[in-house]
Amino acid sequence: MSHTIERPAPPADERLAARSPIRKLLGRPEIGSLVGAVVLFVFFSLVADAFLRASSFSTVLYSSASMGIMAVSVSLLMIGGEFDLSAGVMVTSSALIASMFSYQLTLNVWAGVAVSLVVTLALGFLNGLIYVKTGLPSFIVTLGTFFMLAGLNLGFTKLITHNVATPSIEDMAGFAQARAVFAHDFTVGGVQISISVLWWLLFVAIATWILLRTRSGNWIFAVGGSATSARAVGVPVTRTKIALFMGVSFTAWFYGMHILFNFKSVQSGEGVGNEFFYIICAVVGGCLLTGGYGSAIGAAIGAFIWGMTSNGIVYAEWNPDWFKFFLGAMLLAATVVNLVVRRRAEAGK
């Protein structure tokens, strides 16, 4: 009499295991910052009567966009595993180039805008090229660029204009058209909104599409996780890294144009220290300092948190001297939360 021997079923492939919607949600980089933004919004709504006023909230959005435009590209660079400490002064450099080139040569302001774009992109390319050719940490490379640009901003401005600020370009040809593109304000329901808010949201959408829907997005995550492994499987690491640095320089140019056409002149000492605010927005939004993890949406939420905090303290009539303390506390808290969320997400895969 024969007996049928049943073989044990092969173990299920863990790669095919279904994940619950909640687990997928908790695995998103921006979930921690989203919860923080909701808590912060409710908190300032309760402690500051002026916070929910339409005019006040438009100021919050403008402050968020001011950080968020740069935080988008900085977040992509951080996902790629690198930093750019020259981002803050590069914004000022782009504005100074556009202003002085047009004013000194009596040209249409669009000529200065075009020259500024070329020079600023070249600065980003140079940052990336020096990094990939020397192998030095991007922290060191861009720190050197930071000091050089800060010195050039002040030195050239005083040499050419005999002042620390550029002359007003409000009366120059093309100013009105350029202002409509970079610094126009429009009214919605009686509330004045800056066009920079719309540009910010557009940049976030484009960056999110690149990260989640294109091959370049896969490359960014790959080079941030391990450049050596990425190169071994055919990822163009050099090209990707340089492109990320140029992405930062592009948004620096764009935001520099906003500053120029919004305020009509530029102070040569502006921008110093803002690079840390951009990094804070990205980290609060879920980007890891070690690279390979993060999102543009998270960076946008981080910028919104920055905007709420910077203005909420004023609306609550607290001492603004404590503002940087809150920023530092948020940075530490966000770093810990992001680390915990990522470990739990990886453990549940």
Write the layout of secondary structure elements.
Layout: H1 21-26, H2 31-47, H3 54-79, H4 87-105, H5 109-134, H6 138-161, H7 175-182, E1 185-188, E2 191-194, H8 195-213, H9 215-225, H10 227-232, H11 237-263, H12 274-284, H13 296-315, H14 323-347
Antiparallel strand pairs: 1-2
Helix pairs in contact: 2-13, 3-8, 3-9, 3-11, 3-12, 3-13, 4-5, 4-6, 4-11, 5-6, 5-11, 7-11, 8-9, 9-11, 12-13, 12-14
Detailed description of the structure:
This protein is 70% helix and 2% strand. It is an all-alpha fold and 349 residues long. The protein has a single domain (33-38, 51-340), classed as ABC transporter involved in vitamin B12 uptake, BtuC (Orthogonal Bundle). The chain has a two-stranded antiparallel ribbon. Strand 1 (185-188) and strand 2 (191-194) form a beta hairpin. The N and C termini lie far apart (46 Å).
Distance between the termini: 46 Å
What oligomerization state is this entry in?
single chain
CA radius of gyration is 23 Å
Please describe the biggest sheet, giving its number of strands, its sense, and whether it closes into a barrel: 2 strands, antiparallel
Supply database-style keywords.
349 residues; two-stranded antiparallel sheet; 2 strands; globular
Quick take:
The protein has 14 helices and 2 strands, in the order H-H-H-H-H-H-H-E-E-H-H-H-H-H-H-H. The chain has helices spanning 21-26, 31-47, 54-79, 87-105, 109-134, 138-161, 175-182, 195-213, 215-225, 227-232, 237-263, 274-284, 296-315, 323-347, and strands at 185-188, 191-194.
